[in-house]
Amino acid sequence: MIDSKIEALCSAWGGRHIVEVVPGGGFEKGLANRSGVSVDYVVWIDTQSERRIPEVYESMFSTFERLGLAPVRRHVTLALQLGNIAIDLLPAKRLSMISDIHEIYSARRALSLTTNLNQHVLDSHDSGRQEEIRIIKLWRDQNGLDFPSFYLELATIAALRRRPLGALADNVWAVLGFLERLLVPRAMLDPANAANIVSDELTAAQKRGIAIAAAAARNGRPWSEIVA
Predict the structure, then answer these.
(1) Residues of the chain with CATH 3.30.460.90
(2) Fewest CB atoms within 10 A around its CB: which of 35, 68, 136, 176?
(3) Domain 2-121's class?
(4) Burial class (CB within 10 angstroms; exposed 0-12, middle 13-18, buried 19+) of 188
């Protein structure tokens, strides 16, 4: 039901320029939590469309605003509230029919970005860190932290690069330690495009807020209190 409503809204906005509207983000990567704050969709824009991605993003925002849907600009998505369901829409345009390189828009940085969304999914599956990422996402949501999901995933994978698979409690503890000590000084690059510095989505102050929350979680609190 919600899928058809999203498709109808996007078609009303983009018409023939819309190729497909599909679940994305955490669902495609196997990282979605039942208590997650939003449902992610990728809105695929026709390669032949003359609109550049900033124009696409702002046009979508303006249309949904006129429809009274109160859209909110997020990191690279537009957020909508449909009834009791929060939706994140990611407009993405494949640069050519023979390439997996996509153009997306960072509203926070007012910057067009090229990346490979398919590679992001493959990298996430290959990492074997889905459980740890899901727990850190729960911790983020329950603490109300501004921590973009892709940035969170990259940080979690980096923190666990040399750690064994399956040691869930110890690995989550290690991720929190990484966030406490290294989130602020360490740059996180998009594996599909090193020119895209994903960590630039947050200011130093915002990163320090996450580091402080991670330190508090590790400060003698039992596991059951870290993620309810």
Answers:
(1) 2-121
(2) 68
(3) alpha beta
(4) buried
